[in-house]
Amino acid sequence: MANATIYDVAGAAGVSLATVSRVLNNPEKVKEETRLRVLKVIKELGYRPNVIARGLASRRTTTVGIVISDVTRASVAEMLGGISDIAYNYKYSIKLFSIREDMDASEIFKDIVAEQLDGILYLNDELSEKDVEQMRSVFTDNQIPFVLANVVSDNETVPMVTIDYEKAGYEITKSMIDDHRKNIYFLSTARRYSVNDQKEAGYTRAMEEAGLEPKIFRTSGDTHVNRQHFATFFEDKKIDAAIGARDSIAVSFMNIALDNNVRVPEDLAVAGFQNTKYALLSRPNLTSIDIPVYDIGAVSMRLLTKLMSSKSVENIRIVLPHYVQVRQSTRNNSID
Amino acid sequence: MANATIYDVAGAAGVSLATVSRVLNNPEKVKEETRLRVLKVIKELGYRPNVIARGLASRRTTTVGIVISDVTRASVAEMLGGISDIAYNYKYSIKLFSIREDMDASEIFKDIVAEQLDGILYLNDELSEKDVEQMRSVFTDNQIPFVLANVVSDNETVPMVTIDYEKAGYEITKSMIDDHRKNIYFLSTARRYSVNDQKEAGYTRAMEEAGLEPKIFRTSGDTHVNRQHFATFFEDKKIDAAIGARDSIAVSFMNIALDNNVRVPEDLAVAGFQNTKYALLSRPNLTSIDIPVYDIGAVSMRLLTKLMSSKSVENIRIVLPHYVQVRQSTRNNSID
DNA sequence: CTGAAAGCGCTTACAG
DNA sequence: CTGAAAGCGCTTACAG
């Protein structure tokens, strides 16, 4: 039989459907003998509770929504890995919602509410504070717990898992300054992201602290455009270090530098963020801030499970550690 | 009000809930005047049908399941992009199922059936023929349409969207042979994938056709292991060309070759598969077979929508075109 | 420890 | 064109 229902099981086991339901949901309330008998029938019939019916009756769908803007980005995929592993442990299913530029965020959030999810993970670091506020208000009204993963929000009431990007930006810049670099550029994205803003802030702090002028250059992220813009760097401008907001930007920049006969790391130090495979496969290898993206996903999912079981959660703002993975592109330049 | 139900709408509009339901699902059956009135109330109340209740009553969840083994892989993420875009157009939601090595495939498929999905997309190219057969049998018994995306199955009754990997493998190998290369290696993965088997088959065909000996080397895919294994290539073995089953393998190999003072492409031609950003960011850039992964996702989702609406589908085995993106790593070596 | 009954929020024949 | 009623497959107080 393709699809046994709870009635079939109850009939075959000679109990009521309430008992079958209990065996599944509150086994301790059922006499062992009965429980075993029901379990046997369940197995024989290959019975599996209809997830939808259960969701309607119990008002718990054991499904969490993952809201993202671009699945394609390496960090998103990696985070999904962490989320998926933890979700599996806790028996949660995952429903994916891609959110597009042209969508009305507030409408989307309401649509998501209609999905009867038990909780939401927001991976979209393109989030403006206004969007966060809308989301908070819609989900809070409907009592749906949510967590921001790898997104920075200043609202202290919003649960969030991230790393200290400001500090990371500061540290990598500082290390270049200590390495006697003076003209250090920060290569960021044209599109503003909360996390990139943080990186920039850390960079700026380190530069100003050292009495150096911060120079932030925003690229569209398109490799071709990069090449044109970047090429002029080596003609007109003095530059002896560059930090890319992403590894791919850093590698792309480094390649163009090499094409212009700039030596890396001797003439130019380069570093990126994320410590992706790009950093590993580039020549020279790229120094990069290692961000535990998988962990961010896993930890945010675990935080969400706590919120969903409405345990009182002590810390809803989790900052994970990061470190600088030093490689060839910034090997020491010190004169001593 | 946080959560208006269909009753609230019916009450406020002075109609029965059946009429509200019709306005949403069969608007043509409702008098325009009534329809407009109901629509107005729906808007005012911000009513959105409970997706779960609708799913139970209609036995259609407008949700498709995506079954994958490793979200982290670039091709999977890219495919998800295509799937997600088309799903959005057709108003389908996406539920993600990660399948792990240690799981019993057949049990998983039954669990998935319990989710009451309208259709399934299988992105897992680690699929054995046995797994495909189990899946086919479980889903067919339960009348759930499914499509294999970027997976090759010999079973002609199984809907599938892919490219002709055998031909691609043949073509890239042939072009190297035409370029007077003789010792051409194919660098594949230790883990067998249906698509990689196809690539290898095409490579082997081209080699044998030219009277050359096929040499397939399987790497675990871990970059460190690669380095150790590959290093010996340049001591002991004559080798003047290599094709990586993935771009990352090809780039990794190329880097090690360069470290061993092998010139690319003069001494060694290298090519990869997938035409990812790795190919673009490597030095020299990597020649790569461009595989329309996004399109594979999009087309398979569209095929699935047809199957779900039980239209008679003419062609359930779709082969998308590919091409060789020639770059520096294989620039012509011809003597003429 | 177990069963009968109501209810979750919808859709869908069936009448009219 | 519209409404009353049954039903989708479960869970969950409420009795006993």
Strand order of the main beta sheet of chain A, please?
2-1-3-4-5-11
Discrete helix count of chain A: 13
What level of helicity do the residues of chain A show? 40-55%
Structural class by SSE content of chain A: alpha/beta
Overall form of chain A: elongated
Can you count the beta strands of chain A?
12
Order of helices and strands of chain A: HHHHEHEHEHEEHEHEHEHEHEHEE
Quick one: CATH superfamily of the domain at 165-291 in chain A? Answer: Response regulator
% residues in beta strands of chain A: 15-25%
Average pLDDT metric of chain A: 89
So what's the oligomer here?
A: homodimer
CATH architecture of the domain at 165-291 in chain A: 3-Layer(aba) Sandwich
Euclidean distance between termini CA atoms of chain A: 79 Å
The chain pair with the largest interface is:
A-B, 55 and 55 residues
